[in-house]
Amino acid sequence: KKDVLILAIESSCDETAASVVKNGREVLSNIISSQIELHKLYGGVVPEIASRKHIEKINQVIEEALKEADVTLDDLDAVGVTYGPGLVGALLVGVAEAKAISYARKLPLVGVHHIEGHISANYIENKDLEPPFVCLVVSGGHTHLVVVNDYGKYEIIGRTRDDAAGEAFDKVARAIGLGYPGGPKIDRLSREGDPEAIHFPKARIEGSPYDFSFSGLKSAVLNYLNGCRMKGEEVCRADVAASFQKAVTDVLVEHAIKAVKEYGYDKLAIAGGVASNSTLRTAMERACRNNKIKFYHPSPILCTDNAAMIGAAAYYEYIRGTRHGLDLNAVPNLKL
Ligand code: KG4
Ligand code: ZN
């Protein structure tokens, strides 16, 4: 059987990324141009700035990806691209680029759902992982518990009612003066703090055991900080970070393990930027071991936004016969 080489493009938020992936699981190149330094000034991603920067960078990033993989456009079998969800202006840059390459080189075009990409990141380093399994997707924009029934067949069994897990990390980080993006900073500072120092609430939603809510937790942190300020007490930021992080990870672990057990699977994967959190990884690993569940997770660089994961997802879509036309559009609120 002939190898399938896919050029994948990702531009849904603040990373301009391109990758060449062979047969869905072998990454030949994975180029990521991050805009974090630009958006830091504003404490979050500014959509207009993101779009402009994508336009500036995308050709260079694709060239680098092809060069590092040691292939040319002539070697490719298809072009994969994230077409949603995400920032519409940012998505459009990748989609237009993918369409142009597809048209010029007569290559099949495969649109990919960004979350399907995050989930598929698990296939890259875990050659034995195949559906069915349960995946906890925790990123800056999404918190989903997903049953992966087969390649391309997803069932969302739980989701956040308000903030995404990564959003909660970013907001709490801002409140304690850590800056953007908050997740990695809270992760680091927590190592110096006591996770039992402050008791923050863990929200559970009556009748929906797999749903999440993080806005109450965020408010509890803000109230705690205000309380300290009013009383003139000094805040131990490391304790706040560690205690907040524990409250988030406890809930994520609890819900994910419960889902795997009740749905009768024996495999759990995690995905998305927050899946690179060291406390979450350790806690999930331990819980899986105790419950005889096989635990899968991508390396941190494949957890946050990248195009290799889009290449992995595009491969399985390509094999299933998914093809998009040149009328493919960016869909900011695309459903999985
Ligand atoms: O998946 P991602 O790169 O972009 C989205 O699709 O949203 O996720 C970014 C999110 C940010 O909220 C960031 O703060 C969070 O992932 N994040 C982390 C860590 N690294 C990134 N959160 C907790 N711990 C980390 N180590
Ligand atoms: Zn993402």
What does this protein look like?
- This is tRNA N6-adenosine threonylcarbamoyltransferase.
- Pfam families: TsaD (PF00814).
- Its main location: cytoplasm.
- It is built from eleven helices and ten strands.
- It has 336 residues and is of the alpha/beta class.
- It folds into two domains: 5-119 and 303-319, 2-Layer Sandwich (Nucleotidyltransferase, domain 5); 131-300, ATPase, nucleotide binding domain (Nucleotidyltransferase, domain 5, 2-Layer Sandwich), CATH 3.30.420.40.
- The strands form two sheets. It has a five-stranded mixed β-sheet with strand order 3-2-1-4-5, with helices on both faces. A five-stranded mixed β-sheet has the order 8-7-6-9-10, sandwiched between helices.
- The longest helix has 27 residues, at 237-263.
- The radius of gyration is 20 Å and the shape is globular.
- Residues 114, 118, 139, 272, 305 line the site of zinc ion.
Count of helical regions: 11
Biggest sheet architecture: 5 strands, mixed
Helix and strand content put the structural class at: alpha/beta
Number of strands: 10
Rounded to an integer in angstroms, the radius of gyration calculated over CA atoms is: 20 Å
Domain Gcp-like: 26-311
Catalytic activity: L-threonylcarbamoyladenylate + adenosine(37) in tRNA = N(6)-L-threonylcarbamoyladenosine(37) in tRNA + AMP + H(+)
EC number: 2.3.1.234
Keywords: Acyltransferase, Cytoplasm, Iron, Metal-binding, Transferase, tRNA processing
Any descriptors?
five-stranded mixed beta sheet; alpha/beta; 45% helix; 2 domains; 336 residues; 10 strands; 11 helices; Nucleotidyltransferase, domain 5; binds 5'-O-[(R)-(carboxyoxy)(hydroxy)phosphoryl]adenosine; transferase; binds zinc ion; single chain
